[in-house]
Amino acid sequence: MMKPTIPERIAIMKSELGITTDAEFGRLCGMNKTVVGQLKTGVVKTFAARYAYKLEENTEFCAKWIQLGEGPMREDKAISQAKKIMESMGEHQRKVAVKIITPLAEPDGNDGDGEAHHQKRRIQ
Question: Which CATH number, 3.40.1550.10, 3.90.220.20, 1.10.260.40, 2.60.120.200, labels domain 6-68?
Fold first, then answer.
């Protein structure tokens, strides 16, 4: 399967966001409608990172997908929320949070809720 081109990605995002104009799309990512038009026609051949990340901030679309057409198109809402929480924390708080979260990501061979793993750890 080929990755979608920049014009195709813009069309997908506009459609899924219910946006009809290039100006409206441009406001979401901080570019003017002329640049959006140039991206759609291929005059500008790269989706600049600053625009992709601004669009990621304002939508559920992933910056990597916006910019390169690779990876997941959307970020899971829970992951997005967790990133925002982590970004708002101080360095020490982030380190503590990572220590708490890391064991939850370990494979534990159950249904994915981690309960059997935690039960086992409590017993030991």
Answer: 1.10.260.40
State the pTM of this model.
0.67
Token pair recorded at residue 84: 């925002």
Q: 39 near 33, Cβ under 8 Å?
A: no
Q: How confident is the model at residue 111 (pLDDT cuts 50, 70, 90)?
A: very low
**Under DSSP, is residue 31 helix (H, G, I), strand (E, B) or coil?**
coil
pLDDT at 115 over 80: no
